[in-house]
């Protein structure tokens, strides 16, 4: 059984992958949990055997095409008494085999499964989290020592503070991954403070190679949300622009009235745009760019945009894009609550 890429276990969406013979080679924690077995037991099971009845998988993979989108497929581990239903996306893997992404449709009526966070983690993920916490603690200790040496250097102190803040954010993320507690209640978040944090990370990552432009509407009210999750989402989008070879990246915020997000219309919403002049989204990936493990970069994991979209949904928002070479815009829409009576519950 192949090891699961760590970032896959951050997704609430069940994901599995097969070898060239169509047998399960790996699965994330959400997939194993949803099927009610361990990821180890899934190893070697033929993909077609997960289909409780019917031959949709066999017909989809026998064509050896790019893949298929299948509606309400009954899935179960062989020997189970009853299936669970999901909308399934099959995507061809480089080098042979398939990616399977399942969106359950029977367990969470009225809910988008992508909004739901994992309630527990596998023993393997807990071990990984433990291994990551030790070097993070070392990084924070080193930053504290470095802080003493740059006491008279404003730029140095700012960079050390950034390191310490990111170590704290990552440590908090690991604590949340290890805990089965529900997500934190949403609280007022200054979106421009989040963007400034993201820009500082971008400046440290890209240096002078990228021109970063602020185009803010200072009159915007706070967003109800999770500041760390929003930082993670927006940093993924900006880093994606850097990886696409952008020389200029603009972060723009505006207020919009009467905006439809999903099935609802909101009196007031935040429109946040990240505009870059990079290579753009490859045409062959245009319809699959938000799927896990789809990347236009050779070194990319294909998880950044999937996680960014998941965070948008957690905040009752939406994430979309338009792109052509030299001009790509990712647009995040988030509801803004005018007062406590207009919504804003984190549930």
From TrEMBL:
Every Histidine kinase domain range: 127-338
Assigned keywords, A-Z: ATP-binding, Kinase, Nucleotide-binding, Phosphoprotein, Transferase, Two-component regulatory system
PROSITE patterns named in the record: HIS_KIN
Enzyme class: transferase
Enzyme Commission code(s) on record: 2.7.13.3
Top-level taxon: Bacteria
Pfam families, per the entry: HATPase_c, HisKA
Record's protein name: histidine kinase
GO molecular function, one term: ATP binding
InterPro entries linked: HATPase_C_sf (IPR036890), HATPase_dom (IPR003594), His_kinase_dom (IPR005467), HisK_dim/P_dom (IPR003661), HisK_dim/P_sf (IPR036097), PAS-like_dom_sf (IPR035965), Sig_transdc_His_kin-like_C (IPR004358)
Organism from which the protein derives: Lysobacter dokdonensis DS-58
Record keyword Phosphoprotein present: yes
Catalysed reactions listed for this entry: ATP + protein L-histidine = ADP + protein N-phospho-L-histidine
Gene3D superfamilies: 1.10.287.130, Histidine kinase-like ATPase, C-terminal domain (3.30.565.10)
């Amino acid at each position: 059984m192949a090891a699961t890429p760590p970032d896959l276990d951050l997704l609430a969406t069940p994901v599995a992958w097969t070898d060239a013979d169509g047998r399960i080679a790996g699965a994330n924690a959400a997939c194993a949990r949803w099927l009610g077995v361990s990821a180890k037991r899934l190893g070697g099971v033929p993909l077609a055997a997960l289909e409780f009845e019917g031959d949709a998988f066999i017909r989809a993979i026998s064509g050896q095409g790019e893949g298929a989108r299948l509606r309400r497929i009954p899935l179960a581990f062989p020997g189970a008494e009853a299936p669970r239903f999901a909308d399934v996306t099959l995507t061809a893997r480089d080098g042979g085999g398939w990616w399977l992404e399942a969106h359950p449709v029977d367990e969470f009526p009225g809910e988008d499964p992508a909004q739901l966070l994992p309630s527990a983690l596998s023993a393997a993920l807990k071990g990984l989290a433990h291994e990551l916490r030790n070097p993070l603690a070392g990084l924070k200790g080193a930053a504290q020592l470095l802080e003493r040496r740059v006491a008279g250097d404003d730029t140095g102190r700012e960079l050390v503070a950034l390191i310490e803040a990111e170590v704290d954010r990552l440590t908090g993320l690991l604590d949340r991954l290890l805990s089965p507690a529900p997500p934190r209640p949403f609280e007022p978040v200054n979106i421009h403070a989040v963007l400034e944090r993201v820009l500082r990370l971008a400046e440290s990552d890209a240096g002078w190679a990228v021109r970063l432009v602020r185009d803010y509407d200072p009159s915007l009210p706070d967003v109800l949300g999770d500041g760390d999750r929003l930082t993670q989402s927006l940093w993924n989008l900006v880093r994606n622009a850097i990886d696409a070879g952008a020389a200029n990246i603009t972060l723009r915020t505006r207020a919009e009235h009467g905006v439809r997000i999903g099935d609802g219309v909101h009196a007031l919403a935040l429109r946040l745009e990240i505009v870059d002049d990079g290579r753009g989204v490859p045409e062959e990936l245009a319809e699959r760019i938000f799927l896990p493990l789809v990347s236009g970069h050779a070194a990319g994991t294909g998880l950044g945009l999937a996680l960014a979209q998941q965070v948008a949904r957690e905040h009752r928002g939406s994430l979309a894009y338009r792109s052509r070479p030299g001009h790509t815009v990712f647009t995040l829409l988030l509801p803004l609550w005018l007062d406590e009576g207009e919504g804003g519950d984190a549930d």
